[in-house]
Amino acid sequence: MAPLFETIKSFNDVPITSDGVETASFLEAMDGVLTMFDLFGSTVFGFVQSDIRGNISGVRARYQQARTDSETLEALVQCEATAGDKHKHGTACLVRLFRGLAFIQHSLQHMQNHPNEELHVCFRNAYEVTLKHHHAWVVRQVLHVAFRAVPHRRDFYGTISSGASPEKFDPEFGKWLDALEKIVKRMKGFLEGGGYGKV
């Protein structure tokens, strides 16, 4: 079996121009994120999968409604804002999706930067930085318990690398993480700077 990052669209392959992040390629890369978490079954990362899946659906629905005016994520948001839709469902889903992506990016980057820390520590630390301030006390407690159920680091790494050597897998994983970080930073700036929502 090939390593995960050889079989899914990488964020490294999502075009970013002066107009913004290409919507269709971004959504395809997001499907790859779901594929990654699907490798562990629905119970382990269910809280992440459910949130991401719902938000991808909302963004994809908005994209399909106005494809020619939504070629970039930025254009999708601006198109929805000028369409007069008071609910702006696609934009709300995009904001929540980027909150989740910031969490994933911080978690996995922490895992790469701290090779001796277990995954639940990486997730907990990333949660404190990215999502905690968006959640009520009850949700925080549920998630802290859920983090204890994530796989051990070696099992997670072994699954997403499909047994490939670190020399082969690490560079691809690094490129994926770097590109994800670039997209998250760009969209965070755009969404917050434009008053569309707080990531």
Automatic annotation (TrEMBL):
The keyword Transport applies. It holds the Pfam family GLTP. Keywords: Transport. InterPro entries: GLTP_sf, Glycolipid_transfer_prot_dom. One of its GO terms (molecular function) is ceramide 1-phosphate transfer activity. Gene3D superfamilies: Glycolipid transfer protein. Residues 21-161 form the Glycolipid transfer protein domain. One of its GO terms (cellular component) is cytosol. This is Glycolipid transfer protein.
